[in-house]
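Board work, copied verbatim: SDR family oxidoreductase
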Amino acid sequence: MNLFDLTGKTAVVIGGSSTLGGSLAEALAAYGAKVALTGRLADNAEPVRKRIEEAGGEARCFAAEATSAEDLKRLLGDVIEWTGGVDILLNCPGVNSATPFFEIAEDEWDRIMNVNAKSVMLACQTFGEYMVSRGEGGSIINLSSVSSGPPLSRVFTYSASKAAVNSMTQFLATEFAPARVRVNAIIPGFFPAEQNRSILSPERVASIMGHTPMGRFGDPAELQGATVYLASDKASGFVTGSLLRVDGGFGAMTI
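↓ predict structure ↓
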């Protein structure tokens, strides 16, 4: 009984050129899915594609701006032309900032909200409508954050954007459920991705470690199992609207 076999499925990974997105894309490919990797430039995802194909998987790179409805609609058409359909959508673009609240400019707020929240809404509109209308089910996985609630200090806009991702996930789970399209989110703890390295001062790291029972950062590979689980209809066919924590126990404690 292979609960995690994704053979014959096609996965679209928005932000597939990123540290976490690339790792999750590799996991989906390892379990049999064909993977469409996106980045602002197609070449940005080439290293991930090469790793997938060297491991025996199949992937292709596509240029797409995650905050552009036009780009996402074009991407959907291109992927359908390549494999014949889309079964899995993984939303994982992200940008962060530690600007103090009173110093946050409108353009910074807009940039973070656009990348982290608007992109998820647009991708779910484009690919969700396709999955619902096709009538064959599907899985949408959004990458959230422990900052989504309660919010983390120093990252006001990021926290607000990830709270929005959680709300969208649960709202769309109920909207899409009759069509057997599942919508879930993964809540990662602290993983040393590019978007947060610049704000990880020694003081910040000490604070994080003091609040993480496992006492360490996560490795991107430790998000792979959760992703494959949520992608697989056999493993999680009755799972929708869930916010799955992979955080080393961060969310399980207060002080």
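The CA atoms of residues 27 and 225 lie 8 Å apart.
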